[in-house]
Specification:
membrane; 85% helix; 53 residues
Amino acid sequence: MRTIQHMLRHPAGRIGVTLGLAIGFIVTVTGGTSKALLFAGLCRYLAGRLPKM
């Protein structure tokens, strides 16, 4: 919960969360949920491999 609060305080975090929710809603409505989940898993994997700053 602390990470989400920290992210929402930053303007870029708010934009990212807003875009993510909007895109997720559109993908769900259009029926491409499985592709979206695959893409989200790939992004999470790649983010985990990047060095922490």
